[in-house]
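Question (not urgent): is this output format expected?
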Amino acid sequence: VQLQAFGGGLVQAGGSLRLSCAASGRTYAMGWFRQAPGKEREVVVGINRSGGSTYYADSVKGRFTITRDNAKNTMYLEMNSLKPEDTAVYYCAAEGRVGKGYDSWGQGTLVTVSS
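Got this back:
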């Protein structure tokens, strides 16, 4: 499965952005990771295929919302109340085969939050 991420950009603190991740085919679990300069990649959010189970890192709870549209093979990340510490390259990931974990990765999209 090929993934393509969209929607990064520059926003002021307190602002909002919406990221999209389009998959070339059927996916199971999906998620977003991010990597800030000089830091390791970290998981941000995750969602199962039905959308009935989600995961949020403590740092984004209450501010970020993950959703998906399986008819469009697309996942979305709505990011509100953005903070400078949210600045990072955001990567989408997907489980292309059941039980195999994240085996497909998008190219990354840069989110920059200015103070």
